Amino acid sequence: MKITELDYPLPQDLIAQKPLSERDRARMLVLNKQTGQIEHKIFSEIVDYFYEGDMLIVNNTKVIPARLIGKKTTGGKIEILLIRQKEASSKNVVWEVMTKGRYEGEVFIDEIKAEIRTNCDGKQIIFRMTPQEVKKLIDEKGFMPLPPYIKRKPEESDRKHYQTVYAKANGSIAAPTAGLHFTEELLENIAKKGVKLREITLHVGVGTFKPIKVENLKEHTMESEYFEIERALLEEIYEVKKKGKKIFSVGTTTTRALEGYASERYEDMGSDEQKVRGRTDIFIYPGYSFKIVDALITNFHLPKSTPLALVCAFCGLEMVKKAYMEAIEKGYRFFSYGDAMLII
């Protein structure tokens, strides 16, 4: 499959710049992957698509305020995006980072000195501090890492809005945005229908939004991302499927964790009797056969992106293109703070 097949024309004014004041009032395009039928709903109406015995699985990762503004020794500013922690000791913490420009050397973040350097593992920032001190610095001085297509500076309100209501496991540098539409009340209403609500963790890293730079999708390599799944949940999943009920996955990150495990496309990172812990680099694109997920709740994704490839794998390229064109025609809001799509 060629990357050009994942392209589509999108008016810039449809890229959502701010969240809705009420999460569950987003619009929701419902696509039946068997018939191609499309319905237009409000997200809170998703309750109507569940049946007793179904399972809803969410990604409980929590976005850290991973964007730091540093000052170079020359006095200029440098933007630093924390990717993942590499090392930590009582006096030394190292994070993998991305920065604008090729600067190396000392930086000051709110008068706290750190060092940026590059080695064979890429660019890193070194804090001569305890892990607790570094966490406090990030929490207090960091900004939410809004994606570049949101053309404004992060605001204090983004700390709440760019986070799911069930976020608890610190570690992501981007939100699992399909989950942003859920409220606690909506989740309660879904549970009242006899739906099993369950959580997994996948920490969203650069793998989810790294652009595809090859012409042939088969040649693209995903950056691996850390995930955790309870073994008891895996047993429950297979029981639900055995009974003919549906597994609803919230977002492409939840889907990648589940399917990465089921496809045995992961590196074990210390699994035990209670949990599977691993890093998955699974790249799901058309031709992939889904092993766990029956229904997908997602947002509208960037052209030529890996999440869009996953959606096309789930219900077919032509069906997705038709749905996207109808969403554009009807003025849906796109990307992270945009509207939702339910594929059943």
TrEMBL record:
> Any idea what job this protein has?
Transfers and isomerizes the ribose moiety from AdoMet to the 7-aminomethyl group of 7-deazaguanine (preQ1-tRNA) to give epoxyqueuosine (oQ-tRNA).
Q: Which UniProt keywords apply?
A: Cytoplasm, Glycosyltransferase, Queuosine biosynthesis, S-adenosyl-L-methionine, Transferase
Q: Which InterPro entries match?
A: QueA, QueA_dom1, QueA_dom2, QueA_sf
Transferase among keywords: yes
State the source organism's domain of life.
Answer: Bacteria
Subunit structure of this chain's protein: Monomer.
* Gene it is expressed from: queA
Recorded GO cellular component terms are: cytoplasm
GO BP annotations of the record are:
tRNA queuosine(34) biosynthetic process
Family (UniProt): Belongs to the QueA family.
Q: What is its EC number?
A: 2.4.99.17
Q: What GO molecular-function term can you cite, just one?
A: S-adenosylmethionine:tRNA ribosyltransferase-isomerase activity
Q: Which pathway does the protein contribute to?
A: tRNA modification; tRNA-queuosine biosynthesis
Q: Does the keyword S-adenosyl-L-methionine apply?
A: yes
Q: Where in the cell is it found?
A: Cytoplasm
Describe the reaction catalysed, as an equation. Answer: 7-aminomethyl-7-carbaguanosine(34) in tRNA + S-adenosyl-L-methionine = epoxyqueuosine(34) in tRNA + adenine + L-methionine + 2 H(+)
Q: What class of enzyme is it?
A: transferase
Q: From the Swiss-Prot or TrEMBL record, give the protein name.
A: S-adenosylmethionine:tRNA ribosyltransferase-isomerase
Q: Which species does the entry assign this protein to? A: Thermodesulfovibrio autotrophicus
Pfam hit, one = Queuosine_synth
